[in-house]
Amino acid sequence: MYKIDENAWNEKYILLIPAMLDAHFPLIKYAFYSKDYHPVILSNEDHITDVGLKYVNNDMCYPIVLNAGQMIDALQSGKYDINRTRLLMPTAGDACRGANYLHVLKESVRKAGFDRVKILSLNVKGLEKDCQMRVQAFMVWRALFGLFYGDILMLLINQTRPNEVKKGQSQKVWQKWINILSRDLKEGKNLTLGKMKRNFDRIARDFSRIRLNDKRKQRVGIVGELYIKYCHLGNWNMIKFLESNGCESHTNGLSWYAMYYMDSHLTDNMTFESLLYKAGLKFFGSLQRAMVEAIRKYGFYTMEDFFTMKREADGYVSWGYKTGDGWLIGAEITGHILHDCRKVLAVQPFGCMPNHTCGRGLYPSLQKKLPQGMIVSCDVDSSGSKLNVYNRARMLVDMPLKMGK
């Protein structure tokens, strides 16, 4: 396996990657290191919406406005040698505006005067083959570990940080494990499935040793469109807002989305490729069950594993919703409410048709079928108001739940 040296970047292309997965990129970034590329997860935030709107039509959805704005702002900063810089645009390739992200980014970068900068695509549908990033086996293996380790760390710190007696203790435990796992990923050591499962237990045990307040804060589930759900830029620091208002937030892990995508997008027929994805789905399921068991062993909350969650959601959602985040949104809402996370905040970009149909269009039905829960929807957009979004979240926090089930 390729051994990573983070200081050896002078002879490589700099690969700029927009912020997308706050909890996962500190580890998943190691999957993008190769003999050719040195990845940089962008952290610039000031004025990126304004930069994005300068080059992207405001009718495009909010994530691409932020992505393009962040990347163009980085190119304009002068920090990077334009001749040795590449941009990476991950995309699911769904039947929505997201399928046009790569084309929109190309046009935006060209308008900004950086037409020499090559843009690479990362997708599993074979889109834009002329500029698709070459993925090697060691990259996939590192990404697998980054995904599951990112999941368990996110699921645990979001429960301990709002409730810890000694402030900062959760962050220390999180940083300890980021350091350990980063070293393993860089050196290509301890990347076995047995080690991963043992680490699940060790990580959960470490978080269980954090002293928590006896009176736990109310829990709010966060569901919705992928980027808005996992990136603080997209959801306007919603986790921080909820914690500052006396709540414990729960965002479900990325492995559930990965399994949803394989289940709904890639296994529809009997081609050799679809059979591989079906095998991958079972493989992911075994790792996810081990993670869920470790989390629950130490008394923490988590969603049911993917296959159990899907069974429980039967009758509440339609499996025909396969565009974008599709039926996963409704299934996560159902899972939260059935397992005592009874307040759910659904976040999506304004004008996101898949989320407005598969998500918002389903909320009234779910609210009738699950009267013990409460669902509030929030749209974010470049022209939107943070105050309005925060007010809706605050309304969810303050409203009393119905008694009983």
Please characterize this protein's 3D structure.
The chain crosses the membrane at residues 139-157. This is 2-hydroxyglutaryl-CoA dehydratase. InterPro entries: Dehydratase_Activator_Redct. It comes from Coprococcus eutactus. There is one protein chain. The protein is globular and about 60 Å long. It has 405 residues and is an alpha/beta fold. The chain has 17 helices and 8 strands. The model has no long low-confidence stretch (mean pLDDT 92). The strands form 2 sheets. It has a 4-stranded parallel β-sheet. Strands 6-5-7-8 form a 4-stranded parallel β-sheet, sandwiched between helices. Helix content is 49%, strand content 12%. Helix 3 packs parallel to helix 4. The chain has helices spanning 25-28, 48-55, 62-76, 101-111, 137-160, 169-187, 193-208, 226-230, 232-235, 238-244, 254-265, 272-297, 306-313, 326-338, 353-358, 363-369, 386-398, and strands spanning 13-17, 37-41, 85-90, 118-122, 218-224, 247-251, 343-349, 374-380. The termini are far apart. Among the domains are: 13-135, 3-Layer(aba) Sandwich (Rossmann fold); 217-252 and 303-405, Rossmann fold (3-Layer(aba) Sandwich), CATH 3.40.50.
